Amino acid sequence: MNDLFVKFTMAELKRLSVKYSYSSIPQKIKDKHATEFMRLYDRLEECLKNGDRQGRQAILEEFEKYFITVAREAKKEGVLR
């Protein structure tokens, strides 16, 4: 596993979480979607182990959709602008 590849991927994941204010979302909303988060994270980890750049990119795109979904739910509940 290339350390730079892993660092870049984790930085991209962090960028997405900041972009969608993930840390501001209440835990109860995150908990509803925990299974999906873990499924994506496990797949991302597997791609990183295998050095699969295309798979990595596809999973990061799925993570973005996940963050959007969670942020929308938080906005509906009035806890996120």
Describe this protein with a few key phrases:
81 residues; elongated; mainly alpha
Characterise this structure.
With 81 residues, this protein is an all-alpha fold. It is 79% helix and 0% strand. The protein has helices at 3-19, 27-32, 34-50, 53-76. α3 runs antiparallel to α4 (53-76). The chain is elongated, with a radius of gyration of 13 Å. The model has no long low-confidence stretch (mean pLDDT 92).
What's the SSE blueprint?
Blueprint: H1 3-19, H2 27-32, H3 34-50, H4 53-76
Beginning-to-end CA distance, first to last residue = 39 Å
Largest sheet report: none
The whole-angstrom Rg is: 13 Å
**Uncertain parts:** none
Looking at the structure, what is the overall shape? elongated
Give the structural class.
Answer: mainly alpha
Gist?
Helices cover 79% and strands 0% of the residues. The chain has helices at 3-19, 27-32, 34-50, 53-76.
